[in-house]
Here is the input.
Amino acid sequence: MHLRVENVTKTFSRNGSSNTVLDRVNFSVHTSEFVSLLGPSGCGKTTLLTILAGFQQATSGRIVLNGAAVSRPCPDRGFVFQDYALFPWMTVRENILFPMKERKIPKKEREERLAALLAMAQLEGKERLYPSQISGGMKQRTAFIRALAGGPQVLLMDEPLGAVDHQMRQTLQEELENLWLKDKITVVMVTHDVDEAIYLSDRVIVMSARKGRIVADVNVDLERPRARTGQKYHAFKDALTGHLKAAFNEGLAAS
Amino acid sequence: MAAWHYQSDLLLPGPLKVVQAFGLAMVDPDTLYNLGLTLRRVLLGLAIALSLGMSLGFAMGYSKTVMQLVDPVINPLRQVPIMAWVPLTIVWFGLGDGPTLFLIAMVGVFPILLSTVSGVQSINRDYYNAGRSMGAGFWSLFRRIIIPASLPEILTGMRVAVSAGWMSVI
Here is the structure.
């Protein structure tokens, strides 16, 4: 798996005035890497992620996955939405089967994969429930394995823990790390939370509020499973907090 | 009280008489036949309203272009009082089932159309994106996302259409 963002520019124009959100952004993601896009709000990180997914098109530049340019949504890139976007009229089971049915996977294989995914996410016994009947953590796990069910090469996550309180967020981060350690798929995650970025990522790309310029690209070589303690952890935290501040100030200076 | 005052079964029959008459009507073949006729008309009219309203509603809710093309035609039609259609329908369809069916379909189609449009328009964009990123094509999106997601609102429109249909059957 090799994913490359090449000179991606996104300009929104309305009523004659144009606003460039991303200006020639470049980076690569390697197999089994967990990459976070960290940045202040308005830095275009979510826009970039939706361009990666194919939900919208880059004004110029391209996304290259395994040597081929991609511009439309496709099961080779799974997506986990901020509020999960589980289909409320389907049970947990039907939600997870959705991508497998669309990919015309034979029934027997579908059932086997479903069972394996449910076991991995510790959702056995919950598969007949509807999304409204399960907890936030279970929803997150359902969304995660639903995105995995279609067999993507890379998983794109848009602030998947955005809507929960601090304590819950830490618990969900631990669950997410656990899940990811079981299936080391390549991940690109958008976040604005320094702690979350360090806790989960192998690599953190810090984007500026000025046209998404990449301020820093930091390898986080902490041991897994991770702990939120220790000198090294705090050194990363200080460094990234500094980068994030710089990224925010660039936006202020530009406006 | 009123019955006491008038002492007339013609003006206001007593409850007992009403129940008796209802019992008789329930076994009277003529009444039953006519009831069946009315029921058939209402169901047929609603079926027309449903297929027309839903197919147009899905198209209008999904595509802005269709909306802009069709809406200017639909809106003025919607304002026409239902009784104003009566003379026209008799000219068009003659006497018999035609005018009744037309009227039932006419009053039913708008609530169904409008609720379908708003049902489709209020679907969370993420559901489309989620479907597409999981490999769903247009028909799959339609069958597995658009229909179930907009169904609750369509049912509301259908309920309105049914009662409106009954009222215009006469």
